[in-house]
Structure to design on (363 residues):
């Protein structure tokens, strides 16, 4: 074979390889595009009609997902893909298996169980007792319930973990419209001690962490005037840094209640029952501060499941891992054992956060 023929074959081989690489790249982009679109599928609770809905924020199409045994308040997905929701009037926490269609009570005897959050590791969850003044931890395998935080006479609600594994919650007393008896607090996940808090804020309900902005967002049923709802942006590293987004950008959300982040620059908020609430999902675009009124879900719309990270439908790794490679930091090494339920090292806990745990089924 002469040199000219060899060179020609080499060039053809290089050309074929380049075309194959281009096809792989285009396929990857297509798959990423599909994944982004599926990330806009929200799950919402509707209290009086006892339904869980699917809400497509791209098309504004709303479908019934399943009929709950009791009136649902808040919801999340566990590591196995089950829907875990609170029945605030019945005082119970339920787990619904979408494969077997079985809806089971996993905890009972709570005083108005409200908001929920999946904990790092996926083996335990937190639930706030609105009228009980407590935040409880429930083992999702044994269903054993223990109390993490207790302040009788108060109304704990939304809980969330930031990208560093720190726990935050909306604490204080709800009060009447216009009163400012609540605040966002950083809580020690082992002892329940308050490690820091914001100024008092009115009407706080839902709470979420957004990996796109690395900020906390708290929904408020009513602003300082007591007339309409808003959303507060809070720096988890400096709880003195609080921004009223409604006031800053000149918009409002009537009775802002459930709140979640897609991890891609959008915060979704549910407008709760009762005037002036309207049962719509609202979309806050963090890139430009604009607010869009989205799909009407139900006149009894209450809460939204996490759309990314802990408690999201697909059991994705925590958003911080996707956006910036951050590793969770815990002040006490024993913290790992709380969530894994075994004598586990730090690397095992980090494995859960990176979506490598067999119990989580990967990302």
């Amino acid at each position: 074979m002469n040199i000219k023929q060899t060179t020609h074959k080499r060039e053809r081989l290089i050309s074929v390889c380049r075309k194959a690489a281009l096809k792989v790249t285009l396929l990857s982009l297509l798959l990423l595009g599909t994944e982004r679109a599926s990330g806009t599928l929200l799950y919402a609770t509707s209290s009086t009609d006892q339904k869980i809905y699917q809400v497509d924020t791209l098309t504004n199409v709303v479908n019934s997902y399943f009929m709950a045994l009791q009136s649902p308040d808040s919801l999340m997905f566990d590591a196995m893909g089950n829907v875990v929701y609170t029945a605030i009037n019945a005082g119970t926490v339920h787990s619904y298996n979408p494969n077997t269609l079985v809806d089971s009570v996993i905890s009972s005897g709570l005083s108005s169980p409200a908001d929920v959050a999946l904990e790092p590791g996926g083996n335990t969850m937190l639930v706030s007792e609105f009228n009980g003044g407590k935040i409880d931890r429930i083992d999702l395998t044994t269903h054993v319930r223990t109390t993490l935080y207790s302040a009788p006479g108060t109304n704990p609600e939304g809980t969330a973990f930031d990208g560093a594994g720190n726990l935050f919650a909306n604490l204080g007393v709800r009060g009447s419209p216009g009163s400012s008896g609540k605040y966002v607090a950083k809580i020690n996940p082992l002892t329940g001690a308050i490690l820091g808090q914001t100024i008092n804020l009115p009407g706080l309900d839902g709470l979420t962490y957004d990996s796109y902005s690395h900020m906390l967002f708290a929904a408020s049923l009513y602003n300082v005037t007591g007339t309409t709802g808003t959303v507060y942006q809070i720096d988890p590293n400096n709880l003195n840094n609080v921004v009223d987004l409604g006031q800053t950008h000149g918009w409002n959300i009537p009775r802002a209640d459930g709140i979640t982040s897609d991890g891609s620059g959008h915060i979704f908020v549910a407008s709760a029952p009762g005037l002036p609430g309207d049962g719509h999902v609202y979309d806050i675009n963090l890139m430009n501060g604009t607010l869009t009124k989205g799909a009407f879900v139900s006149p009894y719309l209450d809460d939204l499941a996490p759309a990314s990270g802990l408690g999201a439908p697909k059991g994705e790794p925590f958003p911080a891992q996707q956006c910036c490679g951050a590793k969770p930091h815990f002040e006490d090494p024993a913290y790992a054992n709380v969530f894994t339920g075994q004598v586990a090292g730090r690397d095992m806990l980090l494995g859960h956060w990176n979506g490598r745990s067999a119990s989580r089924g990967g990302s």
